[in-house]
Amino acid sequence: MKELTGNQIRNMFLDYFKSKNHMVEPGAPLIPIDDDTLLWINSGVAALKKYFDGRVKPENPRITNVQKSLRTNDIDNVGKTARHHTFFEMLGNFSIGDYFKEEAIGFAYEFLFSEEWIGLDVNQAYFSVHTDDQEAYDIWTQKFNVDPKRILKTDDNFWQIGDGPCGPNSEIFYDRGPDFDPENIGEKLFFEDLENDRYVEIWNIVFSQFDGVEGGDIHTFEELPQKNIDTGMGFERLVSIVQGGETNFDTDLFMPIIREIEKMSDTPYKDNVVAYRVVSDHIRSLVFTLADGATFSNEGRGYVLRRLLRRAVRFGKVLNISESFLYKLVPVVVETMGEFYPYLADRQEMVQELIHVEEKRFEKTLAGGEKLLLETIESTDGKTIAGDIAFKLYDTYGFPIELTLEIAQEQGYDVDIEGFKQALEEQKERARGSRHKVESMGSQQEDLLNFHEESEFIYDSFENKSQVIGLFVNGKRVESFSGKGEVVFAETSFYAESGGQVGDTGTLELDGKIVATVNDVTKANGGQHLHHVESEVEIHEGDTFTLKINAERRILIRKNHSCVHLLQSALKQVVGDHVNQAGSYVDDEYFRFDFNHFEKVTDAQCLEIETLINDWIAKSLPIQTEVLALEDAKKTGAMALFSENYGSFVRVVSMGTVSKELCGGTHALSVGEIGSFKLVSEESVGSGVRRITGKTSLGAYQEFHALDQEVSSIRAALKLSPQKNILDKIDELEKEIKELKNKNQEMLADVLKSKTAEYVENAVDIENNLKFIWIEQENMEVPVLKDLVERIRNQVDIVVVVNIKESSLNFIVGCSENAITSGYKAGDLAKEAATITGGNGGGRPNFAQSGGKDSTKLGDAKALIFTKVGIEL
Questions:
Q1: Pairing with 624, which of 210, 579, 653, 774 sits 20 to 30 Å away (CA)?
Q2: Which residue from 857, 849, 847, 843 is spatially nearest to 808, judged by alpha carbons?
Q3: What is the mean pLDDT of residues 657-684?
């Protein structure tokens, strides 16, 4: 077998399929673009669904790619098995209506087993097919002479996710030999699908040939009009086999990271392989996800990253690494993976900073968790920590259950493990219930797939005359229709919805009379513009109409679209070059732009962005469009989006020297045409994804005017003269309010002083000749109440004052020396009252204060305190 590095194997795979006339599709970011069915890109085909269901026709029906993927559904197995990872790479080749089973099997066979390529020993290979897929079985046995004794027929070999394209699959396994079969079980491991490290799956070919229904009988599925091939090869597995690694971790993909960890630990790799593998796997996931725009948070993608980091830190502690260390591993990950992913180097500093900050935050969280655990032990009746408490420590504080057990045992306590497991399972159920929509594809529409007549889009024209070349109703081709349907013209000035820009609307005219309205325009599989119309007349194929778009609407749309380009440039300049588009929407009223960024764009940055764009508009920068070959266009530095389906030739839109992008949309004639820009809002729309909404032209003016009207209304309400500044008036009012508050508190304090004798007189006698008083007040200043407690405590032994606010509570407690001698402590009473109302706090034995969050629990707190002092309510 050849000696190959991981990088050589990656490049060899792409070179092989390029030699078979495949187009190399760039790998997508881990954060899906314009796809809310996925939390992460989790397979090679995940970013290519648009081709499989026929929505988009690729430039070349033969595609190959190397796709970054992330899965955390079996995270607990990472490090314990030879092949489980959270971050991994899939090598894939795909056919969109081109070659099928025989060619796909042939490509896999040649790449893996020929000496020219990988050169594995075919006699060590095993294969699987679906029970009913006789065609695939015959190809393996008859064309490639595979011994039937090495082929497993199984009903499990059927690939389907939700509704849409699906089909049987065939897998290739490689026998790593008896060294990986300690019990000498042999082929039984493969044919009975037993868990093992000997027979390793390295290639899966999916024959996507049916239109499936989730839960349906596969034998009733109809054949697809366009059959596809979807293959996936686990890159890490292949590297492990080629390099002879005992596991995927014992390869040049992981060992540089593992060696770097060894420098930080006093435990060698061989003495704790699980901990090393967990850390090396998780740091790769963190580097790639953060570099692709995700960030840490308590939900969604951010929660996944937080869990990965905390798990890695915990295993770092197992290796006796006590200080922050993960961020120090980022450079070695970048160095190891950077040859194929050069963008990592550009984002290395940002990724290190994000990880370092999160590590520091987790250190504080761990400390808080340990404190909570010790407090729980101190206040627990009996000798068992409740399962829900152990789960809270695990889920909220990242406390491993093993650490909870260890600390509890040191204190002589047990932990309700069954209760912990139940709470953990309930959390998993909640997670399953809140997952994104089913990861299905759309169903193919045969007539549209088979419609190949060409249609030309005419840029920068508001009307044209053209002939009907295709008619469709509900996806079926017809010769004529009236009412609702879709029309394709030989030429059209109507823009079809694409790249976030909405489709045009307008009318169809015949002999100067409007006979139909165009409500929307979308693209067919072949790129033709489908005009969604409502017609008053019967439309026939071959008819000729005058097409008129809503010119006023188009002009507003193109202003907004051009401003999106300016916004992306401004974001890169103000916020950082790491900003990348994660989706957009443009219509005539407003636009929104989604982008990857790890924190809120500040108000100051928003102002700077708004000012910068309006400065460019004021300079009326020229907008130029040119058509270039795709590779030539990229060489000019023009920005490109993975989510766009670029052809061999692309439109490059330049706006002065501030913006250059590949874009098929419509644009203003110059930047000055935009008129003005108003940044309306900046918000989060998911972990690591921010959204800016903006308006231009008349919409921007209306936003500015609305603000002006609001200011006028404020001035009128404040009765300001034209010379008076609003901020000055606000300062005056704040001073007046403060003075009034002070006077009010002084008056209340005087009232309380006058009532001191009354409070003392109403004190209740309790055991040991002590006196007790419970006082409730509303919305008082705490210093006033503290003074009250100090004064009453000289005459009453136990004083509890409750300050009831709109959404919270204050407890101020005082105890005399006699009360303390009798066993009462102000700190304990304050803490217990706060705890039962969802808060915390405490203090000294003679004086303490605390806060509660749930005022509806005040009655419970009162009952608790009265019981403590021996009073029945």
A1: 579
A2: 857
A3: 93
Give 341-360 pLDDT, tens digit per residue. Answer: 999 998 899 899 989 989 98
**The pLDDT value given to residue 642:** 52
Q: What is the pLDDT of residue 257?
A: 97
Q: Residue written as tokens 């070959």? A: 629
Contact between residue 369 and residue 393 where contact means Cβ atoms under 8 Å apart:
yes
* Rounded Cα distance, 504 and 588, in Å: 10
Establish whether 663 is an annotated binding residue.
yes
Calculate the alpha carbon distances from 162 to 49, 438, 594, 851 in Å. Answer: 13, 6, 28, 51
Phi, psi of 136 (to 5 degrees): -65, -40
Q: In degrees to the nearest 10, what's the CA dihedral of 569, 574, 578, 581? A: -40
Q: Which three-class secondary structure state does DSSP give residue 265?
A: coil
How far is 91 from 102, CA to CA, in rounded Å? 19
Query: What six digits make up the tokens of 414?
Result: 């047990």
Q: Which residues contact 76 (CB under 8 A, 6 or more apart)?
A: none
Question: Look-up: residue for tokens 């002479």?
Answer: 145
| Structure tokens that stand for 191 in this block | 């044919």
Task: Check the annotation: does 561 bind a ligand.
Answer: yes
What is the Cα–Cα distance from 698 to 589, expressed in whole angstroms?
9
Domains annotated on the chain, with CATH: 6-89+103-225+235-249 (3.30.930.10), 446-549 (2.40.30.130), 563-709 (3.30.980.10), 755-868 (3.10.310.40)
Specify which of 384-393, 408-417, 426-435, 460-469 reaches the highest per-range mean pLDDT. 460-469
At 752, is the secondary structure helix, strand, or coil? helix
> Residue 865 above 70 pLDDT?
yes
| Among 659, 660, 651, residue whose Cα is nearest residue 626 | 651
606 marked as binding residue: no
pLDDT score at 435 = 44
815 annotated as ligand-binding: no
Identify the burial level of 81 via C-beta atoms within 10 angstroms of its C-beta, where 0-12 means exposed, 13-18 middle and 19 or more buried. Answer: middle
Residue with tokens 């490090």: 79
CA distance 618 to 671: 8
Mean pLDDT of the chain: 88
- DSSP structural state of residue 198: S
Mean pLDDT of 728-747: 80
